């Protein structure tokens, strides 16, 4: 993990993770499901980091990814 961009992604995710976790929990209301979705969000955030615009706040961007994954999980349960 010597790539500066990867280190930056991990640092920003570490800061945003509590807020993203709270957001996901507020939507799903289940700690186990929150944890599963949060793992997927972390992977998606790191994989999508190349499209992140650093002139914009990171946490809302990560929450947007989380929202999409929560919706996908809800569709999968139907």
Rg on CA atoms, Å:
13 Å
Average pLDDT over all residues:
93
- What is the overall shape? elongated
Assign the structural class, choosing from mainly alpha, mainly beta, alpha/beta, alpha+beta, or little secondary structure. Answer: mainly alpha
Gap between N and C termini: 39 Å
Question: The biggest beta sheet, please?
Answer: none
> Number of DSSP strands?
0
What's the SSE blueprint?
Elements: H1 4-28, H2 31-48, H3 58-77
Question: What does this molecule look like?
Answer:
With about 80 residues, the chain is mainly alpha-helical. The protein has 3 helices and no strands. Helix 1 packs antiparallel against helix 2, helix 1 packs across helix 3 and helix 2 packs across helix 3. The longest helix has 25 residues. The model has no long low-confidence stretch (mean pLDDT about 95).
């Amino acid at each position: 993990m010597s790539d500066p961009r990867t280190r930056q992604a991990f640092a920003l995710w570490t800061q945003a993770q509590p807020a993203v976790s709270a957001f996901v929990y507020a939507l799903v209301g289940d700690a186990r499901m929150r944890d599963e979705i949060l793992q997927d969000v972390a992977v998606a955030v790191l994989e999508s980091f190349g499209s992140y615009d650093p002139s914009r706040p990171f946490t809302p961007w990560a929450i947007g990814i989380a929202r999409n994954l929560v919706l996908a999980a809800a569709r999968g349960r139907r």
